[in-house]
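hiii so um. not sure if this is the right channel but i have a protein structure encoded as C-alpha cells and i wanna go backwards to a sequence. like what aa goes where. can anyone help
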C-alpha cells in the first residue's frame, strides 16, 4: 500500500491551478505525476509479492529513488526562482513531500 506521503503528493497534483498547468513548468509536474504512478504500482507489486526477483525489485526502487532525487532538485530550483508565486509554493510543497517519501 502506498505511503501517506504519496497520497499527499497525489492530492496536491490533483488540484494544480490552471495557470500552473499551462505554464512551461508543467512538463516537470507531468514527470512527477508519472513517477508517483510508477512508485504506486511498485508499492502494489511489493505488497502483493508479485515481483519476479529481489534484484529486479531493488533495481526498480533505485531507479525510482533517482527520479525522485532529480525531481527534488528541479523543484528546489523552481521554488527558489520566485519564492512568493503560487507555483513556487506548490513546487516547494511537492519538494518537501518527495523528500519525505524517499
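sure thing!! here u go:
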Amino acid at each position: 500500500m502506498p505511503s501517506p506521503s504519496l497520497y499527499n503528493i497525489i492530492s496536491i497534483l490533483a488540484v494544480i491551478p490552471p495557470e500552473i498547468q499551462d505554464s512551461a513548468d508543467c512538463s516537470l509536474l507531468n514527470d512527477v505525476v508519472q513517477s508517483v504512478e510508477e512508485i504506486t504500482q511498485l508499492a502494489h507489486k511489493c505488497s502483493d509479492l508479485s515481483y519476479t526477483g529481489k534484484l529486479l525489485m531493488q533495481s526498480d526502487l533505485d531507479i525510482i529513488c533517482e527520479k525522485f532525487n532529480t525531481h527534488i532538485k528541479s523543484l528546489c530550483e523552481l521554488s527558489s526562482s520566485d519564492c512568493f508565486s503560487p507555483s513556487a509554493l506548490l513546487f516547494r510543497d511537492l519538494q518537501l513531500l518527495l523528500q519525505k517519501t524517499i
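oh and The chain has a mean pLDDT of 75.
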